[in-house]
Amino acid sequence: MKKSSITLNWEGVWKIEDDEFPFDIPDIEGIYMVISAKVINGTGTLDRSSYKLLYIGEAEKIRSKIIKHEVWSHWKKNNKDTIFLKIAKCQVGIEKRKKIERFLVYNTKPVFNEQCGKEDLPIEADTIEVINTGAKLPLKDRYILDTY
To answer: What CA–CA distance (Å, rounded) separates 56 from 61?
Structure first.
């Protein structure tokens, strides 16, 4: 049985306010997630129980892609909580990166992604596994799928 596995180390939590994007978001090849969360009054701390996964995407250059992303205003209009961005470096080339993105969307069903069916997943491996580390919430530690 073949196994395809990748570890994504999720970095940072960037707050997105009024379509103003922090300049320190890395412009790297990778996967990104957009989440919403409540901020605990007066502390600036995020209420982890309120995390909501809005979107998962991939990009050759994350900062360049998200700044131009056409749906930020839609996400903000349809969400009452604060919006945040998390990223994971994923330097595996566009084809594999898109497969990882589809796999995560299939497993997590973000609110604003078009949903993926099992037929949209890569079929060259018998087992696909994504391991999440770092600032991974609300994602699980690991997603695994047998494709046979």
So the answer is: 15
